[in-house]
Every structure is written in C-alpha cells, then in structure tokens.
Design a protein that fits this description.
Elements: H1 3-14, E1 18-19, E2 29-30, H2 32-50, E3 54-55, E4 61-63, H3 64-69, H4 71-77, E5 83-87, E6 90-98, H5 103-113, E7 122-131, E8 146-157, H6 160-180, E9 186-189, E10 201-208, E11 214-224, H7 226-230, E12 234-236, E13 242-244, E14 246-252, H8 255-264, E15 281-285, H9 292-308, E16 313-315, H10 322-331, E17 336-340, H11 342-347, E18 349-354, E19 361-364, H12 370-395, E20 397-399, H13 403-411, E21 416-421, H14 425-435, E22 438-447, E23 461-466
Parallel strand pairs: 3-7, 15-16, 15-17, 20-21
Antiparallel strand pairs: 1-2, 4-6, 5-6, 7-8, 8-14, 9-10, 9-22, 10-11, 11-14, 12-13, 17-18, 18-19, 21-23, 22-23
Helix pairs in contact: 2-6
Bound molecules: ligand PR8.
Ligand PR8 is lined by residues 101, 132, 134, 143-144, 147, 152, 196, 216-219, 221, 249-251, 253-255.
Length: 469
C-alpha cells in the first residue's frame, strides 16, 4: 500500500467519514461527519445543475431486455452488472439489473415523453446509487461497487449542434463545481478505446492525488444518435417529419469527495474547503478558573450570531485541554478556529486560526461585524486552498520530448506528462503498454507541430498520460 493509500484509509476512519468494515466488498457506511460532507458536496452540485436541469428519480432495477438493447453499451458493462434473479423464492421470468448507470432505464421513457421539437431540449438529472461489479482493486470512495452519489445528467436535443453545445455547457458546469471545491483538473478528450460504451466521444476531468496518480473525477459524453436509434427517441420537426434526437450524458460520483479529501489533506489530517465542511468554524473557549462563565457567555453569543448569519459553527466547551481540541478539529479539517479567552475579552479582541495556514491572528471583537469578518476569512481560506492546489497541480505537469524521458519522469514524481502524439490508436496503445500508463487523452485547443514521442511521425495533438487510479 502506498503512503497516500494508508493516509487516505486512516483519515476516512479517524475523521469518521465512512466505515469500511461493512461485510460486502466495495460497499461502505457513511458516518455522520461523512454524510454531512457528502450532503454539502451534493448541495453544490445540485445548485449548479438546477440552473437548467430538472431533477428526477428513476427506479434502481432495469429489465434485462432494455439493458441488452444497445449492443456496444451492454458489452461495455456486461462483466460489471449485478443481477436480481429471484423475488423471494420465485425465479423471475425476466432478470433485473441493478443500474450500473441509467441510460437504459431512462431512454425507453424518453421514447414515451418526447413527441415534438417543442419538447426539446430535455435536460434532467438524478443523484442515486449505482452498482458496478468492479474487478479492479476496490478503494473507498475511489473505486466502489456501490457508488452512492452518482449524479447523472441526461439531455436530448433536436440536432447535432445542440448536443455538442451541451457538452461545452456541461464542461462549464463541472468546472464551476470543481472550482467551488478548490479541486484542480485537466480536461481531455479520451482516446477512442477509452470512451464511454456507446458514446461518440467522451471528455473527462482528471485531478492528481498526492501519490502522483490521476483520478478521473467526472465525464461528459456526446452520445450522438446511437441510443436514440436503439430506443426510438424521436421527435416531430416543425415540418412534420420524424427524426432521431441527439443525446448527451454526464456524471459525477463519490470520487468528487475523494478528490476533496485527497487534494487538500496534509499530515495533520483533513483540510476541508469551507463550502463543504460539516463544521466551518469551531469556537474554543480558553478557560481559566476565574471568569469561566464570562468566556463561555461570549462564546455562546458569538456562536449564535454566526449561526444566525448562516455559518456552520460548533462550540467545543468540553472540559479537556485546549491543545487536544485544536488537534482534533485540525484533523477533522474545520477551516477556521476561533479562540476566545479572558484576556481577549479584556482587550476587545479574538483569535482566528485558519486550518490551511495555521497562522494565528488577532481581530477586533465586534458582534455586529463578526459574521462579516469570519466570512471574509473563510473566503480567503478557499482562495488560498485553491491557489495552493493549482500550483502543486501545475508543477506536476511535465512536458517530455521522448518516451524515455516520460518513463524517467514516471519512475520519480509521476504526475501528468504532456507530449506530442500522432493520434494513431495502435501507437497510443503501444505507448500505454510500454510505459504501463494510461493515455488520458487529447487536450482541447492544443494543436501540436512536434514529433510523436512514440513512433516519430508527425505529432498532431498534445496529449496527456499518467499512472491512474
Ligand atoms: C456514465 N452515464 O456512467 P461514467 N467508483 C467510483 N466512481 C466511479 C466508478 C466507481 N466504481 N466508476 C465510475 N465512477 C455516464 C454519465 C450517466 C452519467 C465515476 O459515465 O461511466 C467516474 O468519476 O464515465 C466517472 O467519471 C463517473 O463516475 C461517471 O461514470
């Protein structure tokens, strides 16, 4: 196990995010702290999607014949599907699949819903659990067999242009989601051999974990007309003709939360962006025998005021050493600590300590302005976390001129490697095999004039490769 894996597994337990001891491989229990983190993350995702998608919910079970309808799609998922074969003791006439994703659950319904061009575009999403019998090494949140926060959006358009515009729109939405979480990313168009089963093309977001391996944290697929033809998703044009629609879909998973934990964490534990932290501010009273009640009263009033202004605050008035409290809340990743002691009250000040820098600062205590001041500090924390994460990320993207140089880089710090590629499938696959890496894909807007680092012919694109999760 790598050092990062060990850190990751320990922090999930110590910070009470999930319990991995559930007796089904790849399926875990969300604990109260983790559930809050999950809830706030989903709120961000939901808020952004709600701008122009409608939320819906489809059943978990998909009839075998629907799942099997789209040949390429089912081939891509056939070894990952869990099946329900019995209802009690009765064998079912038709097996039912636990959804690995919901195209084949939704599109037969789209066939019923969509009649005319005026029904389009259709843009929906749902946040549900999906099941994939992953055969590769499972890891909590990163590769699970029950994905518990699968947020899948599905859109339908009258024409090709509508679908490709939607892909760009989805990329924008996902950028703003990851930006809110201060998680850096690269966006690439996946090579053909790695696209979503049934898609015309797939565009993916990848971030970098501290061990130098990339994690795919979101994907946007242009489905063209493949599924529309299979499921008869048609509409009537203005002139009365019947046409197949164009579709896209895009999805996020528990990996979004894994990336927040992995990207920002440090040797002291979690470091959570304020937007998703279950507790945004912890108040630690500095108590001496004398004046204890007064300090507590100040702390309570501060908590009340901050909460009234919409912040998530915890007052830690346990009768234990302040140092022990600091350690615990740092480990849990609370973005800001406030300390109030008798001397602060005397001086009309209070202390703030941001989790990301741990630099103590004295501020003037004014109950009327305190929420504003604290919010300001939290905004600074978000900005600094984002800057730090992007800087580390950018430093780990290296351009190489040869396959040997790529190999050397991968055996050291790993990270992401940018290189000139001819774009040929057999060359790309050969490179993947030789270097034991994944070709993430082609970077957008990066036409390249160099020489392909593998076959030496003309480089047509700038591509990225990395060791991946
Ligand atoms: C679709 N259909 O399904 P996708 N554990 C955790 N996260 C995972 C796992 C796993 N086992 N497998 C995939 N993901 C499309 C789009 C509806 C929505 C995450 O696409 O198969 C990955 O981050 O690419 C992936 O980008 C995302 O789910 C969507 O899955």
């Amino acid at each position: 196990m790598s050092k990062f894996s060990e850190w990751f597994n320990n922090i999930l337990e110590e910070a009470e995010i999930i319990d991995t001891r559930y007796p089904v491989k790849g399926m875990h229990v969300w604990l109260p702290q983790g559930f809050k983190l999950r809830k706030h993350t989903l709120e961000i995702i939901g808020k952004i999607l709600d701008r122009d998608h409608d939320e819906v919910q489809f059943p978990l079970l998909i009839p075998e014949d629907e799942l099997a309808k789209e040949g390429i799609h089912v081939k891509g998922f056939e070894d990952e599907v869990y099946w329900v074969t019995h209802g009690g003791l009765t064998e079912l006439n038709k097996k039912l699949a636990l959804r690995p994703t919901s195209e084949t659950a939704m599109y037969p319904m789209f066939n019923l819903w969509i009649r005319s061009h005026s029904d389009l575009p259709l843009k929906i999403y749902q946040t549900v659990n999906t099941f994939r019998y992953e055969t590769r090494h499972t890891r909590p949140l990163i590769r699970v067999r029950e994905i518990t926060t699968f947020t899948e959006a599905h859109t339908v358009h009258t024409d090709e242009e509508g679908a490709s515009k939607q892909v760009q729109e989805a990329l924008k939405l996902y950028k703003s989601i990851f930006d809110s979480l201060a998680v850096p990313y690269v966006i690439t168009t996946r090579p053909d051999w790695d696209k979503f089963p049934g898609a015309d093309y797939t565009v993916a977001f990848d971030t970098l974990m501290p061990d130098g391996k990339t994690l795919q944290i979101g994907t946007v697929h242009n489905l063209g007309q493949t599924f529309a033809r299979t499921f008869e998703v048609t509409y009537e044009t203005e002139s009365g003709e019947h046409q197949y629609a164009y579709q896209t879909c895009y999805g996020l998973s528990d990996r979004v939360i894994a990336s927040v934990i992995g990207v920002h964490g440090d040797e002291n534990g979690l470091c959570l962006p304020p937007a998703v932290a279950p507790v945004q501010v912890v108040i630690v009273p500095i108590i001496f025998k004398k004046g204890k009640e007064k300090v507590l009263e100040f702390c309570r009033k501060t908590k009340e005021t901050l909460e009234e202004d919409g912040l998530r605050v915890h007052l830690d008035d346990r009768d234990i050493r302040a140092g022990k409290k600091y350690y615990e809340w740092e480990m849990k990743g609370v973005p800001l600590r406030i300390e109030i002691g008798p001397r602060d009250i005397e001086n009309g000040t209070f202390v703030v300590v941001p989790r990301n820098t741990k630099q103590k600062e004295f501020l003037d205590y004014d109950l009327k302005k305190i929420s504003h001041m604290v919010q300001d500090k939290l905004d600074t924390v978000t900005m600094e976390m984002s800057e730090k994460a992007w800087k580390a990320f950018d430093e780990n993207i290296k351009t190489v001129q040869s396959a040997d140089e790529a190999l050397k880089q991968l055996s050291g710090d790993k990270g992401i490697i940018s290189f000139s590629w001819c774009g040929d499938t057999s060359c790309g696959k050969d490179l993947e095999e030789k270097l034991r890496v994944d070709l993430l894909g082609v970077q957008e807007y990066a036409p390249e004039e160099g020489t392909c680092i593998n076959c030496g012919s003309r480089g047509k694109v700038t591509a990225l490769l990395a060791r991946t999760y």
